[in-house]
Amino acid sequence: MEIDGKICVISGGASGIGLGLAKALLARGGQVVLADINIARAEAVAEELGPKVHAAALDVRSTESFEALAAHAPYTPDAEKYNVQAIIRQLISEKD
Q1: Helix ranges restricted to H, the chain
Q2: Whole-prediction pTM value?
Q3: Model confidence at 13: pLDDT above 60
Q4: Rounded CA gap, 31 and 6, in Å?
């Protein structure tokens, strides 16, 4: 899978397996969003890992939390093919 230049959103990305995945994707050239309920930890880890890592608040139990994350999804050249906002909204509608 080609990761270089892609934006990877990882729930639970501030610790454990999520953090391990974030580091692996970063090493392959990805940009990473650490989406985590513990935003303070996500911000601290993002600062440690460098400019290609960003933090976002996410409580996976909350539809509103996913909507807030989608509202801040960055534009990428692949936006037509991989529209993060549309994907998240579709998942939310399927859940309801």
Answers
A1: 16-27, 39-49, 63-71, 84-95
A2: 0.77
A3: yes
A4: 6
